[in-house]
Every structure is written in C-alpha cells, then in structure tokens.
Specification:
heterodimer, A: 326 residues, mainly alpha, ABC transporter involved in vitamin B12 uptake, BtuC, two-stranded antiparallel ribbon, B: 253 residues, alpha/beta, 4-stranded antiparallel sheet, 9 helices, 12 strands, transport (chain A)
Chain lengths: 326, 253
C-alpha cells in the first residue's frame, strides 16, 4: 500500500492521459501529437487527420476508457457484495446473461438498439438473481457454490448465444468479433451512448462508497448499525450489474478487468472504498486503453479483439495473484 | 426501559428460551449470568433483533421492538457482540466511524459533531496509539476495545454487551467495566451486560438476571439475589457469598 494516496491517484490520472494520447496517435497510420492537439483546440489540420482523430480514434479511445472504468467499478462493487476476491461479473456469468439479451437485440430485434444497455442490464440482473438462488445455502452465500454456479451459468448462456448467432449466421462474423470484446466498428454514436450510460452508472456508484465500506463488516454488526444487509447488498449488486451491462452492450464480453483490477487497486491504495473505487476505476481505464494500444502497435494492420489481449495479459496476472493472495 | 414478555426462541425446533419475561429499568446496570448454553446470548440477541423469535413481545422505551425503524433502533440500543470478527482492510478508527452510521443521512458527509464523538470514543477506550492500524493486526483485546469504541460512538440510551471482557488482559477487563460503569452512572445509560466472571457481575451490577437452561432462575437486586444456595443450584459449586470492602463476592471452596 502506498503512503500518499493523493499522489498515487494523480499519477494514475497522468498515466491515463498518456494512454489516451497513445491510442489517439497510433493506429493504421500515425498522427503526430501536435496535430492531435490542433484538432482539439480547433486549429486547422488536414481533413484526413481530422477524420481519423475525431471519427475513428477518439470514439475508440473513449470506448476503451468507459469499458475499463465500468468493468473495474463493477468488479469492485461485486467483490464488496460477495466478500469474495474471485467475484467478478465475467466469472460469475453476469456478463454472459447481459450478452445473451444484447446479442438478441443486435441480431433479432435491431429496432430496440438504443435500449441495448437496458436490455443487457435486464439480462444481467436476471442472471444475478438466478446465481444468488443457486449459491445460497442456509441463508448465506457459499463461495464455492457461487463460483461453480457462475461457471455453469456462463456455459449455459454461452450455448444460448451460440444458438442465436447460428440462426442468424449471415451476421456471424460481426457477432463473433463482438463476443470476444472488440472495439472495431464502434462509431461516434455508440461511443456517445456508452459514455452517457457509463457516466451515469459511475456517478451512482460513487454514492455507494459508504455502503461498500459497511459491507467490510460482518452481517450482524451491519444490522446493529441500523442497516438492512440484504437491501444494501441488493442495491450495490444492482449497480454493479448495470455497470458491467453497459460495457457488454457495446463491446461484448471482456473478462479479467473486473477480476484483476480491483485486486491491484487494493494492493496499491488499500481497502477503503473512498479511495479504492475511484482508483480502481482509473486503473481499469488505463489497463483497457494500454491493451488496445499495444494490440494496435503489435498486430497492426490486423485487428485482434481487445478482449483477447486483455485475457492474454490478465489471466497470468490473475494466477500470480492467486498464488500470492488467496 | 426494556420489557420482555413471554419470550420463546428455538433453533431447529429445539427450545433455547422458554417463555421468559424480564424488565430492565432505565439507568440500571444489569448483569446476566449463568452457565454456558443457558441462553444468555440468545436473550440479548433477541432484544437486539438479530434473531427471530417464536413468540412473546419485546418493548424498548415504550415502543414495540419491531415497530422501530432500523436506524432509529440503532440510535437507541448499541450491541457489542461477543466475537468481534476481524475485518479485512478496516482500521480501528474506521470501525469507530461506523458507529456514527445510524446518524448518517444519504448524501451527507460526516459532521463536526460526529468527529468529536469519534475522538471522544477513541480517547475513552485508549485506542489512540493504534487507531490507524488494521483490525486484523491487533490483538484480541485491542480489537475488543475498538468494537466497544464503535458501540459507544453510537451514543445510545441502552448499551448491551455480550461478554465484553473476553480476550482482555485483567487490566483492560477492569478498565472496560469501569468505563461502562462510568457511562452508566454519569450519562445514565442503561447497561445490560453478560458476564462470565461472577465476581465482576457482583461488583458492577445493581441488578442481576441469573439464567439456567433457557429459564430465569432469579432476577432482582444483585445484593439480595446472589446466595450460596443459588450458586450451588445454578453452577453446582460450593461457595460463600461474602462482603469485602462493601462489595459482594463469592469465595469458592
């Protein structure tokens, strides 16, 4: 844990800014930093540069920023609710539940497209409720049951998603890319929707900081302090599910961000959610932006869905944490 | 202040408390004693609302227990549990701050008054030297004091303690009980305290509830209640009840 939390947070902000600039500068063709600055302050630049920066790179960078932020915040909240370091919307199948409804809207009912996050949220919350019913024994959530139920639900939702995609196989390619967590084809409209829903959800999550801190105590103590534990849990979980649904709706399933980042955040800044939640949110953005940036630098001109890059980097790191922490 | 009428509690259809009634006066210091498994903890947990009851009513300050809003009750009654669990990532000071939760309003930050009460609670329980240390790095006794500080930061009229001297060094046992007694006398806080040590119960309480097998054996003023016959009956020990420096105590043979 670091001594000075303010310095750590400011440093994270600075790195985030650098990661954003890397993502805007690099890609199929490189745009100089000066040109990027010119675009933003309104100085005249070449039309092609303008289009690349404003219509391709910026929406994509914003997408990475929001996806990382919402998934990391979601992971932080869900770990608080479950009191389980393994809890994460991806691992528990909540993302799959969201993805099922989202892919149904994309492929079968595209007229509902602007309600995509809402649909993904409904899918996620239903999955969450099923999960709780399966994981509770003797009035308590059992960690082992929770994780195993999550694995089973993920597999089941995955099969349903497979079924829907096969029946709509003319769009198979885009669906597969989406399912692996891809930023390709994210346009200005998507980035705007993602930002609106994401920012609202993130602001709401900040109001839950005291509740998350309460959940560090045991149930009886929380009750003694005049709180309804079940209600507190449900509220925090609902926001966590919504946060992950926002991300899933636009870029598909992206694992490991919610699983790993809050861990790292905790190691750096401690368990108090007053610091942990905002800090993890920043770290999540940095992680996703750097993953996408590295992907572009290494594999260009080929596109690898960022979800694959994240899993590639995240899984070994998670195993390392597993050896060290659990 | 607290009235319990015909209370019955059972776990897995096994009766733990059997049609039990007590009355606790405002401003009194009531000790609950009895052998292990007699239902002491169950009784106080029922009053605190942590377990469901089969039948009977609990009235706190003229109002039915289940008519209270949660936070309203937490401003009336604080409950210090027997086992303060260690919580990952919580400092002693954080724990004391949680004590102000019943006064917290949505979207409101900590007030100056909260701050003063937290400082006072830390001072009173001698937490100062380790207020910023993690709970799971503290000894059992230090942790117990941190939980006591949280309970007193709730600023309630009633303080219920379930074996508060457990895990404590003898110095802190008496310091804790002296502090509780002081709160009882100076701030007129009603104290209900489960104690394992009969001599501590005799020394600090003015009322005593003696329990055995889910029933109340006797209940009344401490000085008159505790006799050697009672001790023989409840604890199966032979002893004298003697007075030393004006305080009752038992002297086991």
């Amino acid at each position: 844990m670091v001594k000075n939390k303010i310095v750590a947070t400011v440093a994270a902000l600075a790195i985030l800014l650098i990661a954003l600039l890397i993502n805007i500068c690099y890609g199929g063709s490189t745009v100089g930093l000066k040109d990027v600055i010119d675009v933003f302050i309104g100085n005249p630049v070449k039309d092609s540069t303008m289009i690349i920066v404003k219509e391709v790179r910026l929406p994509r960078a914003i997408t990475g920023l929001m996806v990382g932020a919402t998934l990391a915040a979601s992971g932080t909240l869900i770990k608080a609710v479950m009191r389980n370091p393994l809890a994460d919307s991806g691992l528990l199948g909540i993302q799959s539940g969201s993805a099922l409804v989202a892919i149904f809207i994309i492929l079968v009912a595209p007229n509902l497209y602007s309600y995509l996050p809402v649909g993904a949220f409904i899918g996620g919350i239903i999955t969450y409720l099923i999960l709780i019913v399966l994981a509770v024994k003797d009035g308590k959530i059992q960690s082992l049951r929770l994780v195993l139920a999550g694995v089973a639900i993920s597999a089941f939702m995955g099969s349903m998603i497979g079924l829907i995609t096969i029946y709509n196989s003319d769009e198979l390619e885009s669906a597969i890319s989406w399912l692996n967590g891809s930023f390709v084809g994210i346009g200005g409209y998507d980035a705007k929707l993602l930002t609106i829903y994401g920012v609202i959800a993130l602001i709401v999550s900040l109001f839950l900081i005291p509740k998350c801190n309460l959940l560090l105590l045991d149930d009886s103590t929380i009750e003694n302090l005049g709180e309804n534990v079940s209600l507190v849990r449900f509220i925090v979980a609902t926001v966590a599910v919504f946060l992950s649904a926002v991300s899933v709706a636009f870029v598909g399933i992206v694992g490991f961000v919610g699983l790993v980042i809050p861990h790292v955040g905790k190691l750096i800044i401690g368990q108090n959610h007053k610091w942990l939640l905002p800090f993890s949110t920043l770290l999540g953005s940095i992680f996703v932006l750097l993953s996408d940036g590295i992907q572009k630098l290494v594999f260009s001109p080929m596109e690898i869905p960022v979800g694959i890059v994240i899993s590639f980097a995240g899984a070994p790191f998670f195993l390392y944490l597993l050896r060290k922490e659990v | 202040m607290i009235e319990v009428k015909n209370l019955s509690v059972s776990f897995n259809s096994k009766a733990v408390l059997n049609n039990l009634s007590i009355e606790i006066k405002k401003g009194s210091f009531t000790a609950i004693i009895g052998p292990n498994g007699c239902g002491k903890s169950t009784l106080v947990k029922a009053v605190a609302g942590l377990i469901s009851t089969d039948s009977g009513v609990i009235i706190v300050d003229g109002k039915l227990r289940n008519k209270y809003k949660r936070k309203e009750f937490a401003r009336k009654v604080a409950f210090l549990m027997q086992f303060g669990t260690s919580c990952d990532g919580v400092t002693a000071r954080d724990l004391v701050e949680y004590g102000r939760n019943p006064y917290r309003r949505l979207f409101k930050r900590q007030t100056k008054e909260d701050e003063e009460i937290i400082e006072w609670a830390i001072e009173k329980t001698h937490l100062r030297e380790f207020e910023n240390r993690m709970l799971n790095k503290l000894s059992g006794g230090e942790r117990q004091r941190a939980f006591l500080a949280m309970a007193i930061a709730q600023q309630t009229e009633v303080l219920i303690l379930d074996e508060p001297t457990n895990h404590l060094d003898i110095k802190y046992q008496y310091e804790t009980l002296n502090l509780v007694k002081k709160l009882n006398q100076e701030s007129n806080i009603t104290v209900i305290c489960i104690l394992h040590d009969i001599n501590q119960a005799l020394r600090y309480s003015d009322n005593i509830i003696v329990m055995k097998e889910g029933r109340i054996v006797t209940n009344g003023a401490t000085e008159t209640c505790v006799t050697k016959e009672l001790m023989q009956d409840v604890y199966e020990i032979k002893c004298d009840v003697i007075k030393r420096r004006g305080v009752c105590c038992i002297d086991v043979f």
